[in-house]
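Example 3.
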Amino acid sequence: MFRGHTVAVIIPALDEEDTIAGVIRQVDRDLVDWVVVGDNGSRDGTAKVAIQAGALVVREDRRGYGSACLKAITAVPEVEILVFLDADGGDDPTEIPLLLEALFSGDTDVVIGSRVGEKAEPGSLTFLQKFGNQLTCTLVRWLWGVRYTDLGPFRTLRRSTFDQLGMQDPDYGWTIEMQVKAAQTGLSVLEVPVTYRNRLAGQSKVSGTILGSWRAGKRILGYVFEAKAKELFSRKKMG
Ligand SMILES: Nc1nc2c(ncn2[C@@H]2O[C@H](COP(=O)(O)OP(=O)(O)OP(=O)(O)O)[C@@H](O)[C@H]2O)c(=O)[nH]1
Ligand SMILES: [Mg+2]
């Protein structure tokens, strides 16, 4: 519990048997009530290792980062606060309290760990990733007037806020969907500089390969343009 509220850490994972246990064990269980891994049919020992390390594992056959997050959340219907982080050791679970403190400062609705500060290890964000993030954040600022610096996976929000957002993206559009919907509905989003490291072991699914970056980039930019188009269309229809 954190300040009397139950907390769940949600970890999407695909073939991360070498890193997932370390990530789970670094979560402070005095603060966090549940650690839930959303596994997309990993072919290695991810599920077994995660259970041994004390996590709940929820299997989702529908592929994709967002699908895994959505399914994992269904395992903790009563939790009050959700924290998301990756399974490869890139994010630092010992910084969870930093994000939770920020969530309880002022009127904050969503806290996003930003990886553009000095705490990020050199090389942990590829050139393409930095470029793509900057481009996307600039577009979001032009289209919705909200300033973000990153689309990092490490973030926290209340369950009630999460439900209000109606998250749907089954894939790598998940993080931008949350940020665009927060901007559209006028939520107060706070960015906190976080540590970011190169994945500790295992294979990259997203930004470590050109194909992964291309797929994620297409999805993310596609989401931004589609969200704006839908917004304009529904405004036109209403009057
Ligand atoms: N369940 C699930 N998890 C996924 C999927 N794709 C990626 N992940 C997880 O999402 C997180 C981010 O994927 P990474 O491969 O680390 O992507 P990245 O951080 O951009 O790239 P790296 O440079 O390799 O760290 C990791 O925890 C992955 O295991 C997926 O399709 N399903
Ligand atoms: Mg990673």
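The chain has a mean pLDDT of 95. The first helix runs from residue 20 to 25.
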